[in-house]
Amino acid sequence: MRFASTAIQLLAVLLLWLSIATTVSARNSIDGVRIWPAPENTRIVFDLSQKPDFKYFSLKSPQRLVIDFNNSKNNAALMSAIKADRRVKKIRTSTPKDQGSTRLVLELAEDYRVSIFQLAPAGQYGDRLVIDLYDKESQSITTQDYSQGKRDIVIAIVAGHGGEDPGSIGAAGTYEKRITLEISQKLANLINRKQGYKAVMIRSGDYYVNHDRKTELARKSRADLLISIHADAFTSAQPSGASVLVQATRRADSEFTRWIKNRERNSELLGGAGETIRKTKDNNLAIALADMKKEYTMASSYDFAEQVLKQLKKVTKLHKKKPERLSLAVLKSSDIPSVLIETGFISNPQEERRLNNDRHQQKLANAIYVAVDDYFSGNPPSGTLIAATRVKEHKISRGESLSVVAQRYKVSVRQLKSANNLKSNVVRIGQTLKIPQAD
To answer: Which of the listed residues 155, 173, 274, 328 has the most CB atoms within 10 Å of its CB?
Structure first.
């Protein structure tokens, strides 16, 4: 009897140990998978109950990425995440090497550059394993043909957040990433309607673009201005109104120092002074010329920010009446005037409703567009169509006649009279004439 009792106790202990071991071996779980296709890459995100312990390797013919999640079980509907992604053909399980683990196989369309990393819990998300598949041949934004002379003014538009990063979330569940994309698309449509302007959408869908890539794409498109669209948020629901941010001086100086170290590579972005900056052996001269460019960029950013506030106050409340300087990664460029526009507080319930309203979004986009047009009408970059068609003005001085002015600007008297609705050749001192384009 004593032997039987001892055997029963040992069996109970063994069963308890096996139960604990099974629980420990499957202590982590794959609870979901999300896929975010983008023009240049696809991001796959696995949602996990705990921090992942994993290994991965690639196989060819066909191309596959294999991930072993140690001490894990799969609860995710793997194929439900794949919709129209051109890079991931299938996600399936396979027999793992170690018992109690999960092996996932991603069947890929071709060979991609792979980046895999963990993300700790943040906001609405828990532990995650992120896989980025990058095209080996970039599908980046096409640049303009500058050989034709009168080029378009290029506006790079960054719709804040996207994909895995929802941005701020309103009380009614509104994602900032959706609002920013909708306003950005409306702004791009307005810009593209006007001859002489071209909008470049840095993010055109629901995917994330990291900050370095945003400025890189803006440079590749030779942007004359970068506008980043956001919606503000606070811990309470009271704050409301729009604001415009520009780069803090300290951050700009820090980025400039790092940027000038690669002056041979970056000098092509500096216009006429670029060749001198690249070739000169005088480092002080190179720094001085590049610093002038940086100061011009910062001044231009601030001037444009003031134009935006001037227009926004006509359609919405302002949270800040002057441009605010903050250290922001998206505004770090030393060569492209850049602003970040907070279109309102998504954390304010009334403003959240307005930001969801199509008409209000259009008003915000219209205000920003008018600011763009007003700014570049007064400051058109050389070599652009806007600069070529800009209306010049001339104030009549003592001794000047209509024929003298016509000769000076290489236009005819008839053109001058037509442009200014003049019925005679008589002009008076102090009168301002519009100068038409020469035939």
So the answer is: 155
* Phi-psi label, residue 344: left if phi above 0, alpha if psi -120 to 50, beta otherwise: left
- Domains of the chain by range and CATH? 25-134 (2.60.40.3500), 148-383 (3.40.630.40), 391-435 (3.10.350.10)
Cβ(162)–Cβ(207) below 8 Å: yes
Strands (E), 314-430: 324-326, 338-345, 392-395
Structure confidence at residue 14 as a pLDDT band (50, 70, 90):
low
Name residue 296's amino acid: Y
Give the model confidence (pLDDT) of 364-399 as tens digits: 999 999 999 999 988 899 889 988 887 778 888 888
- Considering only 108-112, 241-245, 319-323, 324-328, which range has the smallest mean pLDDT? 324-328
The encoded tokens of residue 80 equal: 């439900």
Residue 155, number of CB atoms within 10 A of its CB: 25
Taking CB atoms within 8 Å and a gap of at least 24, the contacts of 353-359 are: 353/172, 354/316, 355/170, 355/174, 355/179, 355/231, 356/172, 356/174, 356/179, 358/182
Phi-psi region of 62 (alpha: psi -120 to 50; beta: other; left: phi over 0): beta
Taking the C-alpha atoms of residue 214 and residue 360, their distance in angstroms, rounded to an integer, is 27
Amino acid (1-letter code) at residue 433 = L
Instruction: For the full predicted model, state whether its pTM sits above 0.70.
Output: yes
Nearest 5°: phi and psi at 328? -130, 130
DSSP string, 134-200: E-SS--PPPPP-GGGSSBPEEEEEEE-SBTTB---B-TT--BHHHHHHHHHHHHHHHHHHSTTEEEE
3-class DSSP state for residue 432? Answer: strand
CA 88/CA 75 separation, integer angstroms: 20
Q: What is the mean pLDDT of residues 246-274?
A: 52
Contacts of 239 (CB under 8 A, 6+ apart): 232, 319, 345, 347, 348
Helices and strands: H and E segment counts in the chain: 12, 17
Torsion of CA 312, 317, 322, 326, to 10 degrees: -100
- Single out the residue of 136, 335, 386, 304 nearest to residue 219, CA to CA: 335
Q: H/E element holding 225?
A: strand 225-232
Dig out the tokens for 72 from the structure: 């894990």
Residue that wins the pLDDT comparison between 273 and 408? 408
Q: In terms of Cα–Cα distance, which of 159, 161, 137 is closest to 41?
A: 137
